[in-house]
Amino acid sequence: MTLQITQMLDARGLSCPMPIVKTAQAIKTMPSGGLIEVLATDPGSVKDFAAWSRTTGNELVEQTTDDGVFRFVLRRK
Amino acid sequence: MDEPLNLVLFSGTDDKLQAAAVLTAGAAALGKPVNVFLQYWALDAFRADRILGDHGLAPEAGAEGRAAVDDLRAAGQASWAETLRQAKELGGVDIEACSLSMDLLHLTPADLDPLVDGVEGVTAFYLNAGEGQVIFI
User: Fold this and answer.
1) Which of B41, B62, B97, B109 is the most interior residue, by most CB within 10 Å?
2) CA-based nearest distance B30→chain A, Å
3) What is the mean pLDDT of each run of 10 residues along chain B (137 residues)?
């Protein structure tokens, strides 16, 4: 099944905690169930997105890493 | 997550304000309310005519620390003021000036950057802090 991404956020080059802050801002504008794809290079982002997902209830659907770029797909609660 | 995070900012150097802004933004992103109470030199850094200026670094930074901070900024790191602005956009962040420090620095609310929501005394700060942790920076 291909995920239907409804929003993209390029947070590459942003340092902690901006990738999470920008994601939290963006997801508020999306409908429940909507999917957002985030790209980040902040080395803390893998643990941060997992913790943010657990705490806020927005599901982390996918997480991949490619050449130092972390990619996250989250579904709005 | 209902209890707020309460930050008392005393130091007015850019590194400590940056660390405080990061803590604030992280908590705001998690939906945790944050109360920021500005005292002494931290409040001075929030003056509208000084907020964008250079507020120096803590003494332990030294020349090497100065260079490291400058490198991160050159790489595009958001300033502490911008980080706080983003955190406030998420909601739940209240920034208050300590009324004693306002007197000390001879400031009126009109002297402060719009990031500051108001002026209050320590009693109001503790009331809003509830059972949440109080962190002094």
Assistant:
1) B97
2) 6
3) 91 98 97 97 98 96 97 94 97 97 97 98 95 96
